[in-house]
């Protein structure tokens, strides 16, 4: 285009040049017009180019924001999915911290847990960027009281955002020291709550440079804290569910019959009870069931997996003789839910080898048969062709309570053990049909009524011999109870599992689900769920079935009035335990509200909903066909416990706002009280300083003249006078150290002291301190060993203060070590530090009181203070001076054995 323009311009200029007069003027005008058009065109193109570049940049910025948003959402989605279904929660949390730390460009990301009612804080999880030192091991068992500012700020404000650690307020001095010790320059932390209580906090920090965290970082961290709280809570619920599962497995272990669980698809053994494990002689978990139990290389051709998978809610019973044990079993197979949620095959086997042996013996010999049945552990009866019962062994009489005189014929048997006419007819028809078709076999599984009124679940085997029929009864009552308990507990676990995922549902949905599940688990026809107000009055109720009140002509207010007028209502509120009524007597019926009688409520079970050990509601079910049991009460209590906590958690949000307002008023009162305490503390410090100076002034004269008299400068002394002066000088020296300790404490409190650092040999300071204390304790028969070498590197410190430290420590060793004991001083050089150990064989310190010895004016007890002297401030001063020099001081001690004092000071960096 430019070339064309230049050619055109050249053409026009040529005509302007060769033309004259009016034509030349026309071409000049044309040339000017052309140039203007070109300029306007270029300006327009330039403007469009700028607009296009701005739009491209805008689209790029928008795209970058979308990419970042997608990365955040994708990362949080991965973390949520990972933590929701994590088998190893700790490992997944570590991974998620790494993902968030890299996403938000943090140097460290971490999780802290609050335990022991806010008394202790532990760093449980940590991620560090490359080149950043981990701090997790150093951040264990932190005192919640020492760092109360941090926890209160998290609880009240919901976040801590520190742009620069140096700008922390004075009340956060402990937190500031801890953060600076980790080289942290800026950080952000958010709490997470479980059941309305702070359970910990998460955060990012920077150690290489300060950083101001963005709103986006805060939103990411806030979302992660919610995910983490749910993960911890779900993990806690899962642990409770696993506990329930282990309790169920303990039932299997108590059964002295073979029980095992396997995968019906892979044939892998998942569990065997103790009885079967002892038979096999090894732990077969993880192996194929057909290999271990049958010795086959391929799955059994008689396997029932396909049958029970088609009918998952039904048990399948069959008989089998195991070729390995050569035992006969009646086996019950069914499908259950395993701990990981998959379908599993539960097999319970009952050994009927004796029964089978009895059958074979009957066919071989009547005489042998009679001997067997007389001693058989199973109930056995013999009936002749006329229907008369000729024989019943002792085991049968023991089980049902009837003798052969009570039940002489089969007709009497029907009437006695099957009292229900319809059930009796069903049993007889089954027996008549079976006995016509078979000479031996199983007549069925039935429920018989014993003489004492109890019911027993039995399987009846029969075999015909000549003119007689032999009945062998196998009692399955205990197996049935175990099976029933398994089914009920399994259903309850599934209900609690589903309820734990309903956090996002409405309160109405949670209530309805819990009420329906409570009715289903207990086999009840009706149910009601209610909550109380602050005055213990019912504020709301829901009933199931939904139309039950309308069907009988009642309203919700009628139901509330009826419940509050129930005479057992106060019992539920007072005892805070489930209420059960199975068989109401005349008094119960008479005192029952009219609404219950009109609705024909003949039995009920009510479980309280507790919050902080107060009854805030209840869940009641009614009209179960059988009696309500303790197991029903336990199942219902588990549901109310979880459901109540979830509902009350949602309702408590408004209460938190009220509490925050009250806390602000309380904090104001605490601030005023704190100001008064500071004033009293200053008065105490001033008193100590004044008294110490007043005591030190006359003491100087005492020390001076004491030394003159002791040195015989003022005249010769006899032996007794010299001994007396040594005592005076020794005690004066101890008094001087005590006064200097008080002076130092007052200067520490007033913060008006200053160390004069110099280059020091630690071995010389210790040697001098040892010589001073040894001279004051010449009357003690002690063995003293000093193996501290002179070759240790120099340290930087205040000679006077460090000398006082080791004088105090060595003096304590001499003071608390009886004559004949040993004192040793040793040292090592470790990673740029000098480690000094002062060990004695003295009276020692109880383990529970070691930390208290560092408190100001603390003595182990009054008797020790009188016996050994001292004001209890030496160790406190020593620890503070040592830490001011960048070191550490701690004790190891055992009462009656001795004490080790450890002092660590940093070497001087040349």
Explained architecture:
This protein has 28 helices and 28 strands. It has 910 residues and is an alpha+beta fold. The protein has seven domains: 2-75; 88-240, Beta-Lactamase; 255-351, PAS domain (Beta-Lactamase, 2-Layer Sandwich); 364-475, Beta-Lactamase; 502-655, GAF domain (Beta-Lactamase), CATH 3.30.450.40; 679-697 and 706-736, no CATH class; 754-906, 2-Layer Sandwich (Heat Shock Protein 90), CATH 3.30.565.10. A six-stranded antiparallel beta sheet has the order 3-2-1-6-5-4. The protein has a five-stranded antiparallel beta sheet with strand order 8-7-11-10-9. Strands 13-12-16-15-14 form a five-stranded antiparallel beta sheet, with helices on both faces. Helix 2 (21-84) packs parallel to helix 6 (215-254). The relative contact order is 0.03. Residues 348-375, 649-683 form a coiled coil. It is an enzyme of class 2 (transferase). Residues 690-909 form the Histidine kinase domain. This is histidine kinase. Keywords: Coiled coil, Kinase, Phosphoprotein, Transferase.
